[in-house]
Specification:
The structure holds 2 protein chains of 2 kinds. Chain A is 37% helix and 22% strand. Chain A is an alpha/beta fold. In chain A, the strands form 2 sheets. In chain A, strands 5-6-7-3-8-9 form a 6-stranded mixed β-sheet. In chain A, helix 3 packs across helix 4. The two termini of chain A are 25 Å apart. Chain B is mainly α. Chain B folds into 2 domains: 42 residues; 224 residues, no CATH class. Chain B is globular and about 65 Å long. The chains are: A alpha/beta, B mainly alpha.
Chain lengths: 219, 272
């Protein structure tokens, strides 16, 4: 079994409130895992995955490495192999939508500027965002912002995609289309949602419920 | 007696807290410098054309957009210094030395200093508030999550652009101030422009231009660095934005005057 994310008896971040129950789950390569929880729990979960913090107890492994134990260079390399669309979306306010896609491609993926433009243009096209390319994030409608955040995450063609409450403002038909695209572009997905979402569940191989009663398989 | 002890304890506690905060600030500053050095060493080669684009936009904002305000200020300062100096100079019959006075006071000292102050007031505040806002809105974290080094993307272009801009603006300020001084001497001291320029030439050397540009670059890189540091260390709350701007501007001003003093003392020691 090839595991890309593995949480083993993790009880939260060091120097932060401990979770009521230890969390253990894994994401297998090629699978999509959905976790239903709230933002208080999902934010530390992603911070642990990305190496922004270390677990107070238990172990976290992402792509075979412990993110908190990596040095500055290696943790950046690890993050470059992932795609993230988290909350808040973090689209850079003083850049157009097109440049929001180009900048990470150039600075993190190592593409030449011209190649990055081509890649960004094709991604904007696929995501039906071309008409918004020259718009700054503050002027974008909520659903376009969410799609744009997903486009930025998909642009480097990551093997593993981390999504927090994705496409919550997007209609079901478009959500299905975009999630199909995610499944094609990324091998594995970890999706955390803060609500009941039947469309997200359609695209998930495993669904977990995480609340005050613990971390368990969703009914 | 007890309350006096408490006051003493309170004073020492406050003093200790201040010392600890100062130590932490210095450590953070040194760490930030280290991060900048690392970011320079590992700057991605493929980002050069994008860096040029960012640099162009930064220089346009920091230098080109500041030209009108610098021109107006330089013209006024040049004319005012000459007007004040002329009032004293006529008493000693030294009107011919006005050009030399201008060279000493404005070209060497006030030009770079005023250019830096304008850049701190315009661009320093913009840098600190922009980066603090980015931090508050989660943009910096989002970029880090995507594997982008915020120092490489957000800080380095601003440092380079600011160094170039202040160096250019200092020379520009000096040029306009000299022209303002020339008009003032012609009007007040009835000194022909040729004599004024000759007096100016006697008081200056090519080294002065080099020193002015060097000083400008030092001011620029330092003020941008301090304002970036102040912006990026903002806590993730909206109230942190004005605090970051204030901290950035105050530290940048102290830096500018400190570096100016070091240059002046160094020059004095060198020439003596």
């Amino acid at each position: 079994m090839d595991v890309v994310i593995d949480f083993n008896l993790v009880q939260g971040e060091r120097r932060a409130l401990r979770w009521a129950h230890p969390v253990s789950f894994h994401v297998e390569r090629g699978k999509s895992v959905l976790i239903r929880t709230n933002s208080t729990l999902s934010a530390p979960l992603f911070r642990l995955c990305l190496g922004f913090s270390e677990p107070s107890s238990g172990t976290v492994n992402v792509a075979g490495r412990n993110p908190a134990g990596l040095n500055r260079h290696d943790v950046r390399e690890l993050r470059r192999s992932l795609g993230c669309a988290l909350e808040p979306d973090g689209l850079v306010a003083n850049l157009t939508l097109r440049m929001n896609l180009i900048v990470p491609l150039v600075f993190a993926t190592g593409l030449e500027y011209e190649e990055a433009i081509t890649r960004a243009e094709s991604m904007l096209d696929v995501m039906h965002l071309t008409m918004w390319g020259d718009t700054r994030p503050a002027s974008l409608p909520a659903e376009v912002r969410q799609t744009a955040a997903l486009a930025r995450a998909l642009c480097p063609r990551p093997a593993l995609l981390l999504l927090e409450n994705p496409l919550a403002s997007v209609d079901n038909k478009e959500t299905r289309r975009l999630l199909s695209l995610c499944r094609v572009q990324s091998e594995s997905l970890l999706i955390v949602t803060h609500r009941y979402d039947s469309v997200l569940e359609e695209f998930s191989d495993a669904i977990w419920q995480w609340d005050d009663d613990g971390f368990r398989v969703a009914a | 007696m007890a309350s006096r002890d408490l006051t003493l304890t309170g004073s020492f506690t406050a003093l200790g807290g201040k010392a600890r905060d100062t130590g932490a600030t210095i450590t953070e500053g040194v760490r930030f410098l280290g991060s900048c050095a690392r970011a320079v060493a590992s700057f991605p080669k493929n980002a050069r054309s994008l860096r040029r684009r960012i640099l162009y936009l930064q220089v346009r904002f920091t230098a080109v957009d500041a030209i009108p305000i610098i021109a107006g200020l330089a013209l006024l300062i040049g004319a005012l210094v000459i007007a004040q100096a002329h009032a004293q100079a006529v008493r000693f019959g030294a009107s011919e030395a006005l050009g030399r006075l201008l060279a000493t006071i404005i070209v060497r000292e006030l030009g770079p200093l005023f250019a830096a102050i304008i850049v701190v007031a315009r661009s320093g505040t913009a840098i600190a508030s922009e980066l603090a806002t980015s931090r508050v809105l989660g943009e910096v974290t989002a970029l880090e999550a995507l594997g982008v080094d915020p120092i490489q993307y957000m800080v380095l272009p601003r440092l380079v652009a600011s160094a170039i801009s202040v160096a250019i603006l200092a020379i520009y300020f000096d040029t306009i101030a000299v022209l303002g001084g020339m008009v003032a001497t012609a009007y007040l001291a009835h000194l022909p422009p040729v004599d004024y320029l000759e007096s100016l030439r006697m008081g200056m050397s090519a080294w002065d231009i080099v020193i002015v540009m060097l000083k400008g670059a030092m001011f620029g890189i330092g003020t941008a660095g301090i304002c970036c540091w102040a912006g990026l260390r903002a806590a993730r709350t909206p109230a942190a934005i004005p605090q970051s701007v204030t901290r950035g501007v105050v530290f940048a001003m102290v830096y500018v005057f400190g570096v100016s003093a070091v240059f002046t003392i160094g020059q004095s020691l060198w020439t003596s």
